[in-house]
Amino acid sequence: MTIDHVHVDLAGRSYDIKIGQGLLAQAATHIQPLLKRKFAAIVTDENVAKAHLKTLEAALKSAGIESKSLVLPPGESTKAYAHLAETCDGLLGFGVERKDAVIALGGGVIGDLTGFAAAILRRGVNFIQIPTSLLAQVDSSVGGKTGINSRHGKNLVGAFHQPILVLADLDVLGTLPQRQRAAGYAEVAKYGLLGNAPFFEWLEQNVEAIMEGDIKATAQAVKISCEMKARIVTEDETETGVRALLNLGHTFGHALEAAMGYSDQLLHGEAVAIGMVQAFGFSEKLGHCQQGLNRKVAAHLKRAGLPTHMSEIKAKLPEPEALVKLMYQDKKAEGGRLTFILAEAIGKTFIAKGIDEAKVLGFLKEDAAKQGLAKP
């Protein structure tokens, strides 16, 4: 299979995303030209380490590249201050220098945490993303958003720090549990919903193939997703404008994640899936798009095995008032007012600032009532 290349054009911080099969075993071929000395530090988690760390270490060793590895616990709770300190101290203990490369081998959690550690270590060291989840390959590994969670909200402590290379090996997705693959698919669907109606229609024809692991369909989905994100990041690297569209469903979703304590009760992609359905439902309620689009979105995400309503979360949710309070910690909030990404149609979204809290609360109460969670 050929390797697809997607270029992220950011002047002095430009880099390539390489998408294909067997890239992990060939990692040294792609990484060695970027190293100032034959050394690399690897950060991963326990689950990924069992499946893929030896392959990467062997690939580097075959090219004479020494590597040292730090293995962290898996799960969203790893994106925390304690593990950030552990990562920074571990990398310093390895003797990482500013011109060395730190490799993030893992999903979105490892990528975000490692990238943030790289951003602040010695005031900035190089890092390489080798994403091992579908979500990370299509979204979090691209664009330079790094960070950790706080008790106040998701990704509230972080920095923009671009990788110098992204290697998306499609073969590693074969070890993903189906639930994790579905969580990643939510971000794939997001790209079609926020700004590419033809892509969404293609996904309507190929969602089952992607979920079943079809390489050709998965490669196409990853490539188009990365191309869309690369274009948006090139236009708005630090999210002062159009990049906010990439947060479709995230204001609702992040509040649900926070309510669940960033636990495995609700994965990020699952929260985004529910949040996107709510975003379309809220858009309908405000009169921005035709009725029934949220049902179409929900039906599509259901085909991928994703939850689409709050009633599917197997834990007690806080009252709507508490969810709204959590939304004020969203990064898009401005001037003490809420910001949402709303829809005019599938493939056409916009940034809506200064949304009245009462309208959000009213929508959440109605949504909860429809699902038998609360009285309207």
Main attributes of the structure:
19% strand; 376 residues; alpha/beta; two-stranded antiparallel sheet; Dehydroquinate synthase-like, alpha domain; Rossmann fold; 45% helix
How would the blueprint of this fold be written?
Elements lengths: L3 E5 L6 E6 L6 H5 L7 E7 H17 L3 E7 L8 H13 L7 E6 L1 H13 L5 E6 L2 H7 L4 E6 L2 E8 L4 E5 L8 H18 L1 H15 L3 H21 L14 H10 L8 H18 L7 H11 L16 H8 L10 E8 L2 E8 L1 H14 L6
Parallel strand pairs: 2-9, 3-4, 3-5, 5-6, 6-9
Antiparallel strand pairs: 1-2, 7-8, 10-11
Termini separation: 54 Å
Query: What kind of oligomer do you see?
Result: single chain
Strand content: 15-25%
Mean pLDDT: 95
Tertiary shape: globular
What does this entry look like structurally?
With 376 residues, the protein is an alpha/beta fold. It is built from 13 helices and eleven strands. The strands form three sheets. A seven-stranded mixed sheet has the order 1-2-9-6-5-3-4, sandwiched between helices. Strands 7-8 form a two-stranded antiparallel sheet. Strands 10-11 form a two-stranded antiparallel sheet. Helix 5 runs parallel beside helix 8. The protein starts with a strand and ends in a 6-residue tail after the last helix.
